[in-house]
Amino acid sequence: MSAAATRPLETAPIGQMIVSQVGSVLTTYRRMPGFVAISMGLPIMFFVFFGIPSIGQRTANGTSLGSYFLASLGAYAVSNVVVYNVGIGVATQRARKFDLLQRATPLPPFIAVLGNVVGGLALSLASLIGLFLVAAIAGVRMPAITWLILLGWLVLGSLPMLGLGLTIGYGASRNSAPALASLVYLPLAFASGLFVPLDHFPAFLRGIAPYLPLYHSGQLGWITVGAGNESLVTAILWVAGWSIVLLALAARAYRRDAMRKFA
Amino acid sequence: MIAVAQPVVELVRASKRYGSVEAVRGIDLSVPEGEMIAILGPNGAGKTTAISLMLGLRRATSGEARLFGLDPSDRRARSRCGVMLQESGINDVLKVREIVDLFRSYYPHPMPADRALGLAGLADQADRQIGHLSGGQRQRLYYALAICGDPDVIFLDEPTVGMDVEARRAFLESIREFFREGKTILLTTHYLEEADQLAERVVVIDHGTIIADSTPAQIKARVAGKRVRFTSGRTLTPTDFAALPLSHLQIDGDRVTLLSNDPEEVLRALFSDGVSLRDLEVVGADLEEAVIALTARSPQKESA
To answer: At what angle do helices A87-95 and A109-138 cross, to 10 degrees?
Structure first.
C-alpha cells in the first residue's frame, strides 16, 4: 500500500488562491513603474494643464470648473487603467503562454481572470487617489462626502471599459493590443467629452456622445459635482447596459481563446 | 486495506483530432505509481498532445484520459500533479520566491518554498527577478514550480532544454532524488541518453501511436544493431540495398548511414557488388538510433 494511494483527495482553499493571485498582480504593477506611471501620470498631467488654470472659474450652473475637470479626468483615469493595464497585461500573459502553465495547475481558471480584474481595479483606485490628491492640493474644494461618492461612481463607471480591456486582452495578440486599445479608447474618451467639454464640439459629435459608454461614466462623475446633463438613473442604466454588452464580449473572447487552446 | 493498484495516469484508446489531423490515434497507456517513464518520438509524433490529454489541457476526441482515476481537469486530481511545459513564460518582474509562493498557494499541502528552491538548485537565486535568470536557471525555476506543490506525479516536457552539461547533470540528480521519494515521473525528452539514464520504462510514439513500450535495454535490443557509416565510391540508391538486412537507411550524396543487425553481411554484399568504401565506421547503435530505426519502420506497421 502506497502513500499516494491513501492520500485523501483535497484542494487548496479558494480564498488563499485569490489573495495570492491578486497579490502577484499588484506586485507586478509595483515593479513596472514606467507602465503604471503612464496610466496614472497622463490624467494628472491633463489635470495640471486644463483643470488647475480653471479652478477659480464656474460653469453656468455654478459648478467649479476644477471639480468638473476632476470628474472628467477621473473617469478617464480609471478607464485608462482597465483598458491599457488589464488589456495589455492579459495579452502579454497569453503571448508568454503563462496561461497554459497556469491552466495545468489546480488554480480554477476564473481566479486567474479575477486576479487581473481585481488588480486592475486596485490600480485604477490608486490612480484616482493620486489624481484627487493633486486636485486637493491645487485647490479643488468639495465636501468630504462628495469626494467619496465621486470616487465610488468613478470606479463603478470603469466597468464598461473593463469589459473592453478584457476583450482586447483575451482577443488580441500582444503586438496588436496596445494599438487596438489606443485606437478604440482615445477617440471614445474624446468623443465622450472627457478631455474637452461637449459644448465646444460640433453638433454631430454632440449627437453621438449620448450613445457612448464613457459619456455616461463621465455623467456619473459630473452629476456628483453638480454638472450632469441627465438623471443619475439614466446614467446608471446606460453604464450597466454597456457593462453587460462589453463584459459579454470579453467572455466570448475568453471562451474562444480557451477553446482554441484547451478543447 | 486492499491494494488495488490504481494507475496514476491512464489513457484508454485515447484519440485526438485537430481538424483533419489525427495527432493521437487510439493510445493505451497506463502508468503505475512510483514509475519513471520517458516518452520518446520525433517532432510532431504526438508526444505533447498525449501529455496534454493526460493533463486535461486537451479533451480526447474519443477514448478517455484519467489522472488518479479522475477526469484530468478535476482540481482534486490536479492538486496532486506538477507540470513543466515547453515554452511557457513567466512575468519577468516577479522574484523567484514570489512565483514559487504563488504556485504553492494553488496546492493543499505544498512543500516549503526553500525545499523546492533547494531541489531545483535555485537557493541562491530566491530573491532575484525572473528576468535576470539565465536560460538554464529559468528551466530550473519551471521545475521548482512543478514540484513546489509536493505532487505525487510530475510531468516534465523536455525539461533540460537550454541547460549546460553541469546544470543538466545536477538537474537529473534532482529528478532522481524526487523519484526516490516514491513519486511518479513522466518525461519527454530529445536527449535520449537522458531517457536511457533515468527511465526504467520507455514509450516510443510515432504518427500518434505507441510503437514500443519497454525498458531502454529491451528497446536497444530490439534494434540490437550497429550503425554503419561510409562514403561510397559511386552514388548508391536504395535499390542497391534492397535485399540487405537493414533497419534504417539514409543516403546523403555519397555519404551513407545505415542500421543493421548484421553489418558483416551488409558489407560483404557491398564489397561483392564492387562498391568501394571510404571512411568506414561501424559502432553500436544507441537508444537514439534504436528509436530512429523503430520510427522509420512504423509506416509499414500502420497498414497492418
So the answer is: 140
Q: Please provide residue A32's backbone torsions phi and psi, each rounded to the nearest 5 degrees.
A: -115, 65
Note whether B255 contacts A: Cβ–Cβ < 8 A: no
Average pLDDT taken over every residue of chain B: 85
B123-170: pLDDT as tens digits: 999 999 999 998 888 889 999 999 999 999 999 988 887 778 888 888
Put simply, the answer to whether A98 touches B59 (Cβ < 8 Å) is: no
Closest among B16, B45, B13, B86 to B204, alpha carbons compared: B45
- Does pLDDT of A49 surpass 90? no
Mutate to test the interface with B, among A1, A7, A11 (most CBs of B within 10 A): A11
Q: Is A142 exposed, middle or buried (0-12, 13-18, 19+ CB in 10 A)?
A: buried
DSSP string, B249-281: EEEETTEEEEEES-HHHHHHHHHHTT--EEEEE
CB pairs under 8 A between A and B: 114
Report angle CA B238, B240, B241 to the nearest 5 degrees: 70
Residues 180-209 of B with CB under 8 A from A: 182, 184
B182/A4 touch (CB, cutoff 8 Å), yes or no: yes
Q: How far is B140 from chain A (nearest CA, A)?
A: 15
Encode pLDDT of B76-88 as tens digits.
Answer: 999 999 999 877 7
The pLDDT of residue B150 is: 94
Query: Is there a contact between A72 and A140 (Cβ–Cβ < 8 Å)?
Result: no
- The owner of cell 484508446 is B13
Which residue on chain B is closest to A23 by alpha carbon? B102
Please check whether residue B129 touches A, CB under 8 A: yes
What pTM did the predictor assign?
Answer: 0.82
Cα gap A188→A237, rounded to integer Å: 19
Q: How far apart are CA A207 and CA A204, in angstroms?
A: 5
